[in-house]
Amino acid sequence: MSVNPRLVLIGFEPVLHALLLDRLQGEFELLASATSVDAALAAARGAAATDRILIDTDSLPQDPATVIAKLALLGPAPILALSSAAAPGSATASALLRAGATALVAKPAGPLPLIWEGEDGAPLVQTLREALTR
After folding, report:
1. 35 within 8 A of 61, measured Cβ to Cβ
2. pLDDT tens profile 91-107
3. CB 112 within 8 A of CB 16
4. What is the CA radius of gyration of the chain?
5. φ and ψ at 66, to 5 degrees?
6. pTM of the predicted structure, to 2 decimals
7. With the C-alpha atoms ordered 50, 132, 122, 40, is the resulting torsion angle positive or negative?
8. Could you tell me which InterPro entries the record lists for this protein (predicted)?
9. Taking a C-beta distance cutoff of 8 angstroms, is the pair 52, 5 a contact?
10. Domains, the chain
11. 24-51, pLDDT tens digit by residue?
12. For the chain, what percent of residues have pLDDT higher than 70?
């Protein structure tokens, strides 16, 4: 019997957060879902058995690297950052990795919900799934 990895999902853009919840349902045991920094920290702190933390760093009301550093201090769960600003080799990507993100998935800026199901969205979803199951 296979046990799904336990996930804390943190997102600040309501439409994308709902899409992530929908896409990851059934593949992960969702321990908590947070849409504010305080709720995110409380969720990560309270979910001691967390296998993964997924945080969408876009629309954060605070510096994403600072939030990731706070999450990293709460436990050993790998932190996957989803970001439109964290292209490989960018200053943002470097800052997030230095802060404690263990993996980054770059997403396109703009109308992501419109492309989530289409040709452009499929590789993003696949990359996200692969990064979360490592």
Report:
1. no
2. 999 999 999 999 988 87
3. yes
4. 14
5. -65, -45
6. 0.83
7. positive
8. CheY-like_superfamily (IPR011006)
9. yes
10. 6-133 (3.40.50.2300)
11. 777 788 777 777 888 878 877 766 678 8
12. 83
